[in-house]
Amino acid sequence: MDANEPVTRPAQPVRRPVLVWDAPVRLFHWLVVVLVTAAYVTLKLNWIDWHVRIGEALLALVISRLLWGCFGSETARFRSFVASPAAALRHLRHLFRRDPDVQVGHNAAGGWMVLLLLALLLVETLSGLYVNNDIADEGPLSEWVPVWLANAISTLHGLAWDMLLAAVTLHVLVIALYAVAKGHNLLRPMLTGYKLLPSSIDAPRQTPALLALLPLGVGAAVVMLLAAYL
C-alpha cells in the first residue's frame, strides 16, 4: 500500500430513532420505582396505613403489567424477551465486551431480571395484603387459614421484601455496569422510549397505549376484591 494513500474506514451503519418502549411500560417502570421507594419510607416511619395503600397500588400495577405482557406492544410481551437460561448465560459471558447497542427490548439476561422483579413484587404485595387483613380482621377468608400457614405468609412477606431490595440493588448496579463497561445507556430509552438503532433493524410493533387502561382496570378490580375478601 502506498504510504500516501488515505486509509479507508468501514462505513458506520445509518441509525435512526426507534420507539422500543411504549408509554405503558415506561409508566409502569417509573411508578414502581416511586412506589417501592415510598413503601420503604412508610415502613421505616411506621406509617402502616400508607404502606398498605402503596402495596395495593403496586399489586394493581403488577397485575396490569402481567396482562400487558401478554397483549401489549412487542417489546412488552414476555414471549419476545424471555429466553432460555443458556442464552442468558451466553449473554453474561460477554458482559464486559464493548460493542454497539443494537438490542431491541430486553436482552436475554435482562428478561430474567424482569421476571424475578415481577415475581418478588407479586409475592410481596399479595402476602402483605393478607397480613394486613389478618391483623386488622378485615378479610372474611382470613379465619379459614390455619395458624401455621398465616405465620408462614407473614414470614414470607418479610423475606420477599429483603429479596426485593436486593434484586433492585442488583438491577441498579447492572445498569451502571452497562454504562461503564459497555457504553450502553439503558436509562435514556426507558425515559424517552426511543433508541438509536441501525436502519436494518425493524421497529417493534406497538399496541395503542390507551388499551393499557383495560389491564389496569382489571388489576384495580382484582385488588379491590382481594382487599375485601382475602
TrEMBL record:
Which keywords does the record carry? Cell membrane, Membrane, Transmembrane, Transmembrane helix
Q: Name one Pfam family in it.
A: Ni_hydr_CYTB
The answer to whether the entry has keyword Lipid metabolism is no
* Top-level taxon of origin: Bacteria
Signal sequence, start to end: none
Regions that span the bilayer? 27-43, 104-123, 159-181, 209-229
Question: Which residue range or ranges hold the Cytochrome b561 bacterial/Ni-hydrogenase domain?
Answer: 20-193
Q: Which InterPro entries match?
A: Cyt_b561_bac/Ni-Hgenase, Di-haem_cyt_TM, Hydrogenase_cytochrome
Topology in membrane:
Multi-pass membrane protein
Cite a single GO BP annotation. respiratory electron transport chain
What this protein is called in its record is: Cytochrome b561 bacterial/Ni-hydrogenase domain-containing protein
GO cellular component terms, semicolon-separated: plasma membrane
Which GO molecular function, any one, fits this protein according to its record? heme binding
Q: Where does this one sit in the cell? A: Cell membrane
